[in-house]
Amino acid sequence: LLGCYFGLLWDKNSLADNLGGSTTHDSITDLKERLAKFMQVSKEIMGLEGAGAQLKEEAFISICDLLIVFGHCGEANGQTPLKPLAFKPDEGMGVLLNIFIQDHVFIEDEDEDIDDHQKIEELHKRRNFLACYCKLVVYNVLPTKSAADVLKHYVTFYNDYGDIIKATLGKARENNKTNCAKTMIQSLIYKFNELQQEVAGIDRGSEDFHAIKELAKRFALSFGLDALKNRDAVASLHREGILVAVNPLENPEDPAGAPPNLAFLEILTEFTGKLLKQDKKVVLGYLDKRVAGGVPNSRGDDWAPLNMYRNSLVHGEGDEGRSGAGHQAKRQYNRKRRRSGSDEDDDPDDEDFRM
Known about the structure:
Largest sheet: none
Structural class: mainly alpha
Strand content: under 5%
């Protein structure tokens, strides 16, 4: 496997060095076909239960490295003829790589018999796996959202991989602030859904729920102090969070109770401080429209996250922060044109959320 891997790298380098000379269309086509076959075989090895651990690891490293080399092939100055070699991973390959990371990197050491030297070597290997995967996100080979399953481990595995995840977060923000913010909120959604599946109902006083809030706090701190620079990104984060919290709106187990995901608003509260004052009004109006009239008559504990989130939005706004002013601010900000994102989903009610 490694022999084929190095052969592909060598041939690509040879073609690049001989552009305008011995490099022909046929030689480029031949390399393209061999690359596609190698990637397919490597995918099959990674998904094969009977394949040995070392072979799977070699297949993973090979795929990641070749995606970096061939992912943007032909885009450099003077290398346009090599553009047919550009290899873009399909969704299945992205899923396979993510599964490998979850199974081989984010795991706890349970073997007490291995010595410290072996533990250090094992950690170094896992860090290399993670760095290979994160590079694919940083260099836009995989979409930014592919990092969501990595970011969700930021706090839990901070001592082992915190520096790698932090660097990935920073580079992803440089690439696209809005997509990075959406990836942050997606990682929090993953953690929230996992907690829901583990327990019958969300206990907002539990350690696991507190850990999700701590993760949200870390993400919020990463935005820095320049709220204006991150305005669109933070606003999109709140929009996505509200949609999760109020869908579904009806609680099948208690028709008079709060929406089953409403506790997510308490997590979202960690990001309220990153909103501009005027944007808090827009978010408040969007929230009130989504929960059909704002604060319910019921003051039960299951509605507490809504009250908490609402209070964080109206804090310091006085009477202007009530729902009516929120709608007034919406009309004012509708006149401003929102910058478009590269892969943002359109929502029929987006007109209520324009900054």
